[in-house]
Design a protein that fits this description.
Layout (H helix, E strand, L loop, with lengths): L1 H8 L9 H21 L4 H24 L20 H25 L7 E3 L3 E3 L1 H15 L5
Antiparallel strand pairs: 1-2
Helix pairs in contact: 2-4, 2-5, 3-4, 3-5
Length: 149
């Protein structure tokens, strides 16, 4: 499973980092992503792509909440996308808020001292640990933001 993530995203394994380090990495990587978004054109294609990124981030948060005791929802990333009519500035603000929420959830998972072996399923990647989920969300945003021009 982790090799599959590495092959998809080309980053180091989430097992190489602690949950705290992954939360820090989410924060550090958010700044260049936000900068890229600020320099992008306000186009329908870019809004669609950013909506997808936000949807995956929020959907991943729903999965992270399972580590904290919430029930696993029967939903998809598309169910978490923002409304289509939002302008570029509103979308970028929603992405930033979503990333902050992901970082907050990561810190809550650290504080909860969950079992490192605990997993939550991903429909394509299989069962992922909290570290693998955080890695997945960070790698997904870094990869997908490149399609925004």
């Amino acid at each position: 499973m982790l090799n599959k993530l590495k092959s998809l995203f080309g980053d180091s394994s989430p097992n190489d980092m602690t949950l705290d380090q992954l939360a820090d990495q989410l924060q550090e990587n958010a700044n260049p992503l936000a900068k890229h978004m600020r320099t992008a054109r306000d186009s329908d294609a870019n809004k669609t792509q950013l909506s997808r990124i936000i949807g995956v981030e929020r959907w991943g948060q729903a999965r992270l909440k399972v580590f904290l005791g919430e029930d696993l929802a029967e939903d998809t990333a598309a169910d978490h996308r923002p409304l289509a009519h939002l302008d570029w500035d509103m979308l970028t603000a929603q992405w930033w808020a979503a990333r902050k929420d992901t970082i907050k959830l990561a810190r809550e998972i650290v504080a909860a001292k969950i079992d490192d072996a605990q997993t939550v399923p991903h429909p394509d990647q299989g069962d992922l640990t909290a570290r693998a989920w955080l890695h997945y969300l960070d790698a997904n945003a870094k990869k997908e933001v490149k399609r925004i021009r």
